[in-house]
Design a protein that fits this description.
This protein has 664 residues and is an alpha/beta fold. The protein has 22 helices and 23 strands. Helix 4 runs parallel beside helix 5, helix 7 crosses helix 8 and helix 13 packs antiparallel against helix 14. The longest helix has 24 residues. It binds pyridoxal-5'-phosphate.
Length: 664
């Protein structure tokens, strides 16, 4: 859609309009807001600390660190704040309810295994004896060596072989509280056998398969048909295996996980009560269970609607903690058993907020280009029909005009296929068609939504521009592609300027699925995003709440690799209140080729052989051949994403944009 300026007399667009339109104060959770200059600013400690304009971070990353977008920015202080909030919510609920057990949360490292992320979380969690959860052998190896606080737990989920079990039990030898969660009976037998072999007392947990089932995109993790978990009979059998081996005391924890992103607190309530009943009945049978682990599932309000929609949640962290603590206590008191220590394995709620992916939109595919066609068009009946439709738009019904328009378009296509339509007429018909669709859409939008004819309801999507963005959905936003998960996406600057374009985003992979065409909305899912014109300067979009799973699950589709990354810390001693502590360069072309078994040296050698042959056969002069070869070798060290030209228009300091001046 061409850039449509605000109607004359329309009220000015303010940053409050932007905040409301993009729902920033809803999903932002106090971490994100808009500055008077129209830039998204980050408050990693909410109202308790300084603000960081994202454009300033980009400026420094580009100009000082020499990195380009796409750029992943990690706000490490947000991680600390999330750890604090979750732990304090449980501790407060425990104190308020006079609950007799402790809270011993663990961070599931699969949600984001990056060492700097894990270390920050463990450091922030020291005061709370916050531990980790691992779900595979490699995670177990990493977790065991990074974990340092023997009061905190290491919970081992996932299917296990002897090597996994032995490694976990090395932790027991070192005095760590490593709890092996058995996913099936054979694992209980294996744990008992390996523990005897090593001469160590294991701590064993069992994952119970609850009837309670979640809702939304991860609902299949729970319920009768779940991939993991023991039935009631299997739990009793597992306890017997431990008893027969003289290891009854090893049965320390009962665990459940009904799925990630549980949107409705009533589901949490039901699952907690069901699991607490299992715990209580097992205690009554004499098993020395100490811990009840409620798994993950604490949701993130990606769309800010506060609803039970799959990308939202109808509860707060505080209500979640209160629900777990009270639910377990109520059942235990009823059954007259001691309150267990509580464990939760929240992942996305800890890490989602801390990272923002910034991508540059560097072009757009428009249905109605701003520049009209300059070709001269011969007189033609189809064009006269379109002119009639245009000139009588006001006095005819919108559907009548729409049907005429569709008719002309189809007629033009038929004539073209039969060879009766001149390319110039076809071009003019297409141009006029889209202009008229836009005018019909404008009129439809002015109607009461109830009165918009069915035929015209889809026009907005039909008309949407496509902003081309320098990133890969498959590398950086996998859950959007695979599951349709929604993420808040907002221009990180120019928010004091009215967005004039409705568009979708397409990435640079050569796959038509490489796009974002579903966006957050309060009541529904939006088909388009309000955007600004990209031709006026560098245009950066922030994809927010991407810290959970997206960083780590990305794949190499089209061989686009990991993106550049900067880690930002608040620092009172810095004049502007923050600094970039670390940068991690994204993958180079030779690195991603290496992952698919191409060695850079071998590729260069093969190119050299071809250049030598071309020189021999006089297709190339030797100097030219060597220059081309050097260029190829240099190119292998380039990053995988596009290097966009920094011409005058694209200069970050181009006065046209609302980017703040460079930091002194
Ligand atoms: N624990 C287990 C066993 C899981 O499978 C998962 C993820 O699905 C989690 C914890 C983390 O869940 P979430 O990120 O929803 O907190």
């Amino acid at each position: 859609m061409s850039d449509t300026p605000a109607a004359p007399g329309a009220p000015a667009w303010t940053i409050d309009d932007a905040t409301e339109h993009y729902l920033i104060d809803r999903w932002g959770n106090g971490y994100f807001s808009v500055s008077p200059e129209g830039n998204v600013v980050v408050s990693p400690l909410k109202e308790r600390g300084a603000q960081i304009p994202i454009v300033e971070v980009i400026r420094e990353a580009v100009e000082v660190e020499g990195l380009q977008t796409p750029l992943l920015i990690r706000f490490q202080d947000i991680l600390r704040d999330r750890v604090r909030e979750i732990n304090e919510a449980f501790n407060e609920a425990i104190a308020e309810n006079k609950y007799q057990g402790l809270y011993r949360g663990v961070y599931p490292i699969k949600v984001n295994q990056l060492r700097e992320v894990l270390e920050e979380i463990l450091d922030a969690g020291k005061a709370y004896h916050y531990g980790i959860e691992v779900g595979s052998k490699p995670e177990c190896f990493a977790g065991l060596s990074v974990h340092a606080d023997n009061e905190s737990l290491i919970v081992c989920n996932g299917y296990k072989d002897d090597n996994f079990i032995r490694t976990a039990l090395i932790g027991r030898k070192l005095g760590k509280k490593v709890i092996l969660i058995a996913e099936k009976l054979a694992e209980v037998r294996a744990i008992v056998r390996v523990a005897k072999d090593l001469g160590v007392e294991p701590m064993i947990g069992l994952r119970v398969r609850l009837m309670a089932k979640s809702a939304g995109k991860w609902a299949e993790s729970g319920g009768e048909n779940a991939k993991f978990g023991l039935t009631t009979g299997e739990i009793l059998e597992a306890a017997k295996i431990m008893g027969d081996a003289g290891m009854s005391a090893a049965f320390r924890l009962l665990h459940f996980h009904i799925g990630s992103q549980v949107p409705d607190i009533l589901i949490v309530k039901r699952a907690v009560r069901e699991a607490a009943r299992y715990y209580a009945k097992l205690r009554q049978l004499g098993y020395p269970l100490e811990f009840l682990d409620v798994g993950g599932g604490l949701a993130v309000d990606y769309d800010g609607s506060g609803s039970t929609f799959h990308s939202s949640m109808n509860y707060s962290v505080k209500e979640y903690a209160e629900t777990v603590v009270y639910g377990v206590m109520d059942v235990c008191d009823d059954e007259r058993v001691p309150h267990p220590h509580l464990v939760s394995e929240s992942g996305r709620a800890v890490v989602a907020h801390h990272s923002v992916l910034v991508v540059e939109a560097f072009g757009s595919i428009e249905k109605t280009p701003e520049e009209p066609l300059e070709v001269l068009t011969p007189d033609h009946k189809l064009i006269r029909d379109l002119l009639y439709t245009r000139d009588h738009l006001a006095e005819r019904s919108l559907t009548e005009s729409w049907h005429d328009l569709v008719d002309v378009k189809e007629e033009a296509q038929k004539m073209f296929e039969l060879g009766f339509l001149d390319l110039r007429v076809k071009a003019r018909v297409e141009e006029m068609y889209w202009q008229l669709v836009e005018r019909i859409q404008e009129r439809a939008e002015a109607l009461d939504p109830e009165e918009v004819p069915d035929d015209l309801r889809d026009l907005k999507r039909h008309l949407a521009d496509q902003h081309i963005c320098n990133f890969s959905v498959f590398q950086s936003l996998l859950d959007h592609w695979a599951l349709g998960q929604l993420f808040p996406i907002v221009p990180i600057h120019r928010l004091n300027e009215r967005p004039t374009v409705q568009g979708t985003l397409v990435d640079i992979t050569c796959d038509s699925d490489g796009k974002v065409s579903k966006f957050i909305d309060l009541k529904d899912v939006r088909e388009t995003l309000s955007l600004h014109n990209v031709t006026k300067g560098p245009y950066y979009l922030g994809i927010f709440l991407t810290g959970a799973y997206q960083d780590i699950m990305g794949d190499l589709h089209n061989l686009f690799g990991r993106v550049n990354e900067v880690h930002v810390f608040l620092e009172e001693d810095e004049e502007r209140g923050w600094y970039i502590e670390e940068t991690i360069a994204g993958n180079t072309i030779s690195e991603v080729l290496g992952m698919t078994q191409y060695s850079a040296a071998d590729l260069a050698a093969r190119m050299k052989a071809q250049v030598d042959a071309a020189i021999k056969s006089d297709k190339l002069r030797p100097t030219e051949g060597m220059r081309l070869l050097a260029e190829y070798e240099r190119g292998l060290r380039d990053q995988t994403y596009l290097t966009l030209p920094r011409d005058e228009r694209r200069d970050i300091d181009n006065g046209r944009t609302s980017l703040p001046p460079a930091a002194k």
